[in-house]
């Protein structure tokens, strides 16, 4: 049930998510930096440029970031290390 032919209307979205993640060369810290900036209202492309990540980001990465709960990245910054 992973293709549109099998009745999955979100098959393209699933493909974009997978490609965005796999084709990007980002660490979790990079993702967190992007997420924190986006949670504060910065646009994806502006954040990518400011962080110097343009060459490491897949064209499908905006889809991944759009679907993540960016509040989790803000919460990560508030937690103290254990």
Q: What distance separates the N and C termini?
A: 42 Å
Biggest beta sheet summary: none
Number of strands: 0
Overall pLDDT score: 84
Q: What's the alpha carbon Rg, rounded to whole Å? A: 14 Å
Number of domains: 1
- Low-confidence regions: none
Helical content band: 55-70%
Q: Number of helix segments? A: 5
Q: Decide which structural class fits the backbone.
A: mainly alpha
Describe this structure in words.
This protein is 57% helix and 0% strand. By secondary structure, the chain is an all-alpha fold. The protein has one domain. Helix 1 crosses helix 4 (61-67) and helix 2 packs across helix 5 (71-78). The N and C termini lie far apart (42 Å).
